Amino acid sequence: MNDQHGTGLEPTELETARPGYSPIAPISHRPRVTDTDPKAARRAERQVASMFLLSMVFVVLFVVAFIAIDKTSVVYIPVLGVVGASNVALGFTFGVSVFLIGAGAIQWAKKLMPDVEVVQQRHDMVSEKSDENEAAANYERGKEESGFARYKIIRRTLIGALALFPIPLIVLLRDLWITPAGESPAELLSTTMWKDGMVIIPDIGYEAGKEGTAEELGIRPEDIPVGGLVSALPIEIGLLKSAKPNLIERGKASIILVRMDPSEIRSQQGEGWDYNGILAFSKICTHVGCPIALYERRTHHLLCPCHQSTFDLADSGDVVFGPAARRMPQLPIGINDEGLLVAKAPFADPVGPSFWERDLT
Ligand code: FES
């Protein structure tokens, strides 16, 4: 490194001997307030340490939020709509803690680390031994000048903030084997809201807040043309005003209805599970759980956009391509006395990703 502007560092012989070396005109240097005023330097030191301390506080808040907030509770946030309260709290606290470490580091660099103009000569890629020694010396000098050894409070609070930083990542691992209600993922995914006689309605979304009777909201077979696809829910979860919004139950119960010519159905996951060519399948991919609604009416293939698993809905929802290990669970359907499409039984297979098949004990 070559410095010619009052920092006391002179170019080495090796650098001056290099082809193309030329001395560089001095650049005027304006010291910062923290360079000349010890009080300002101490104030900056306290600011930086406060940010690192606050980062630690937000990590603790993250853990508290993870434990205390019901995973099924939701909040309304303008623009975003209805979102999980736990997700919002975890994202906010973790994001702020990361931000404060970054902001503290920037503040430290801008106000307290050496503020000098440094010029580095360009040189060959292969380093001379003397260059290596020089780099090592520069590293030692940089360590000294950065104040890492001098500013003890900053050093300690930064070490504290970085030590707590991985905790949120470790805490989140708990969700891999324990659900909010304390059940295993296998238990959670084994049951959904669907039961015999439950009316099927279109998935209108919570925000719509649509109210109405089953006759007004329910789907009739004639509403679905051959080749059509409808995203749907059980009526209990679909009616915002008559049921507590529950994102987990809503996700598990999401289905798609497709209609094809009955003669095109090659096999099903049970006898008589369709109604005049209308079939109902879970909407949650059996690979890792992405929602699917990409349907190719000519081939009856359902394509998952996440990793391209493809399911043949005319053949029991079997996997024809991709990483999914099992077919799409099918919901047996029929019609009730009012002519509305209803479930005839719960799903026979667990919905969602297949990790529940593993031994989690
Ligand atoms: S989640 Fe559907 S293929 Fe991976």
Question: Can you offer a commentary on this structure?
Answer:
The structure is a single chain. By secondary structure, the protein is α+β, with helices and mostly antiparallel strands. The chain has 2 domains: 13-176, no CATH class; 185-357, Rieske [2Fe-2S] iron-sulphur domain (Rieske Iron-sulfur Protein). 35% of the residues lie in helices and 13% in strands. The protein contains 11 helices and 13 strands. The chain has helices at residues 13-17, 33-36, 38-68, 85-111, 129-146, 152-164, 167-172, 185-190, 214-217, 235-238, 247-253; strands at residues 74-77, 81-84, 200-202, 229-234, 255-259, 278-282, 294-296, 301-303, 310-312, 318-321, 330-331, 333-335, 341-343. It has a 5-stranded antiparallel sheet with strand order 3-4-5-6-11. Strands 7-8-9-10 form a 4-stranded antiparallel sheet, with no helix packed on it. The chain has a two-stranded antiparallel ribbon with strand order 1-2. α3 (38-68) packs antiparallel against α4 and α3 (38-68) packs parallel to α6. The longest helix is centred in the first third of the chain and has 31 residues, at 38-68. It is elongated and about 95 Å long. The model is unreliable at 1-8 (pLDDT under 50). The structure holds FE2/S2 (inorganic) cluster (FES). FE2/S2 (inorganic) cluster is lined by residues 285, 287-290, 304, 306-307, 309, 322-324. The site of FE2/S2 (inorganic) cluster (FES) has 12 residues, from loops.
